[in-house]
Design goal:
heterodimer; A: alpha+beta; Glutamine Phosphoribosylpyrophosphate, subunit 1, domain 1; 8 helices; 16 strands; globular; B: 230 residues; elongated
């Protein structure tokens, strides 16, 4: 059991605050860790990175190695990194970088440093913040409530198959595809089959979490020419297990629900203003007035919710 | 008859339960407002009270009911009336997955549609749905009746025991080990007796009555056809 949520604002605003409310209402579904994928206003060039480091005594040298790997791919930091440390064993960072010559090759090189430093999101607008603890604790630590943007995802995790670690928390970035993030409630039962197939296609996984796999699977399908709607539909018959997931890109949020209809998702939409979550009581936190709720209770369901008139593409 | 009004908001559900139980001792009628789709409202209600929930409720509303008359103005989340053993629940809108799961007796009346697995493992009582029942409704129902006036989604009555599923309207597909029977006039009369207090009798309905084929009751693992059926 986990809790997931998605939020689209009619106009850019404090989407972080709404996602904190959506996840606080679902903390009972999983208090091991909480995470947010927030789509800030997109930049035309350059990327924003969020990540973690695991050796606080070596922050300076680790970030220097990371920066050197970036320079090897023709890019550099656009400003000083923001470093967040507390009494946790890990530290978190936020960076803004120029465009590498080839983002997939740069990510592959940067991933050779993952025993020391790990990129957890990369995008023109995507920023993933995740950590151990409930929604309020994570939000307080990382200033999530103050984050503004157009849309985002949230996740409350009950760890079942991989460790309670900050980097095993959700959401997951579909590395190396910029601006693609996923939250998932469920379990994929043919995980290793798909992982091996995707690894043979050159993809790198940093965890053994099945949600990370779905994000890459969908992005790979879209890279191969499917629309997001086609990829979502295909996932229902191609991937085994019980699941409901929401996957976000710069243009909006898609969702898919398995053949057995075991994992709930509800949605309230008022014009371009939308909230979706595992539980109805969560979406009532942002739509307090009584209004129509759509229960996606059936099997094999998919849908896409656009942000304004933005194009949906990975 | 006096009425007690209870405001839910974001207060702890334990407090709401205590207020409902206190009110049930002194007042025959309770109105619960500002429900915000919260879970576990009205669980374990005592017999002989009338309780109305304004707006929508979350999971398990009316669960373990022992005889109260419950009215939910709009939608109910998962497992409305789970394990109830008496009383009556009316859902004004949609009822989420597993409505009436494992219920023992009483009636649940849903004015809209019901989600997947309505009446899963029910052991008695009646579930009346004016709209459509969801995927795999009646799954492993041991006894009792599910009556759907607006059709049924796929895999209807899957792995049924001694429960009965009655559907007026389209049935998308049958589940495993289901037999469709033409009901006798006497059996239809029995259904009308259930629908009559709800004002839902319509003699023009074309009923499909689904019962177990009983091939899974004593499952023989060497019977290849039974495996193929699954």
């Amino acid at each position: 059991m986990c809790g997931i949520a998605g939020r689209i604002l009619a106009a850019p605003g404090r989407v972080g605050g709404d996602l904190v409310e959506l996840m606080d209402a679902q903390e009972h579904r999983g208090a091991d860790s909480t995470g947010f994928a927030i789509y800030t206003m997109p930049r035309d060039t350059g990327y924003v990175l969020r990540g973690m480091g695991f050796d606080k005594s070596g922050i300076g040298s680790d970030l220097a190695d990371f920066e050197n790997a970036l320079k090897d791919h023709g890019a550099s930091l656009l400003c000083d990194p923001e470093i967040l440390t507390d009494d946790s064993r890990h530290y978190c960072f936020r960076m803004e970088i120029g465009d590498p010559d080839n983002i997939a090759k740069w990510v592959a090189d940067a991933d050779t440093l993952t025993d020391r430093i790990e990129i957890q999101s990369c995008g023109r607008s995507l920023e993933i913040i995740k950590d151990i603890g409930g929604a309020r604790a994570v939000a307080d630590k990382h200033g999530v409530r103050e984050m503004t943007g157009t849309h985002g995802l949230g996740h409350a995790r009950l760890a079942t198959e991989s460790s309670v670690l900050p980097n095993a928390s959700h959401p997951f970035w579909a590395r190396p595809f910029p601006d693609v993030a996923i939250v998932h409630n469920g379990q994929i039962t043919d995980y290793y089959t798909w992982r091996e197939r995707l690894q043979r296609r050159g993809y790198n996984f940093l965890t053994y979490n099945d949600s990370e796999l779905i994000a890459v699977w969908i992005s790979d399908q879209m890279k191969s020419g499917l629309t997001m709607q086609q990829a979502l539909t295909k996932s229902i018959t191609s991937i085994d297990g019980v699941f409901t997931y929401m996957i976000a890109v710069g243009g909006g949020i898609g969702f898919a629900k398995d053949r057995f209809a075991m994992k709930p998702i509800v949605m309230i939409r008022e014009n371009a203003n939308l909230a979706a979550a595992t539980e109805e009581q969560a979406v009532r936190r942002v739509f307090a007035d009584e209004c129509e709720v759509v229960n996606f209770d059936g099997p094999s369901l998919t849908g896409i919710w656009q942000v304004g008139n933005r194009r949906i593409a990975a | 008859m006096s009425e007690t009004v209870i405001d839910v908001g974001q207060r702890p559900i334990r407090e709401i339960h205590e207020e409902i139980q206190d009110a049930a001792k002194s007042s025959g009628r309770i109105r619960v407002v500002n429900t915000l789709s919260r879970h576990n409202l009205g669980v374990g209600l005592p017999p002989g009270i009338d309780i109305a929930f304004e707006g929508s409720v979350g999971y398990y509303c009316g669960g373990l009911n022992t005889g109260a008359n419950v009215v939910i103005e709009r939608n109910a989340g998962w497992a409305c009336g789970e394990g109830m053993d008496g009383g009556h629940i009316t859902v004004g809108g949609y009822a989420g997955m597993s409505c009436g799961s494992a219920m023992i007796s009483g009636t649940i009346h849903v004015k809209g549609d019901a989600g997947p697995r309505a009446g899963v493992a029910m052991k008695g009582g009646n579930i009346v749905v004016e709209g459509k029942i969801g995927y795999q409704s009646g799954f492993m129902a041991h006894s009792g009746k599910i009556i759907a006036l607006g059709g049924a989604a796929a895999s209807c009555a899957d792995a049924l025991w001694e429960g009965e599923i009655w559907v007026a309207g389209e049935v998308e597909s049958l589940g495993v080990d289901v037999v469709v029977k033409d009901p006798t006039a006497e059996e239809v009369h029995e259904i009308d007796n259930i629908l009559e207090p709800l004002g839902l009798v319509d003699t023009s309905r074309n009923w499909r009555k689904m019962i177990s084929g009983q091939r899974l009751w004593y499952f023989e693992s060497r019977d290849a056809s039974a495996w193929l059926m699954i």
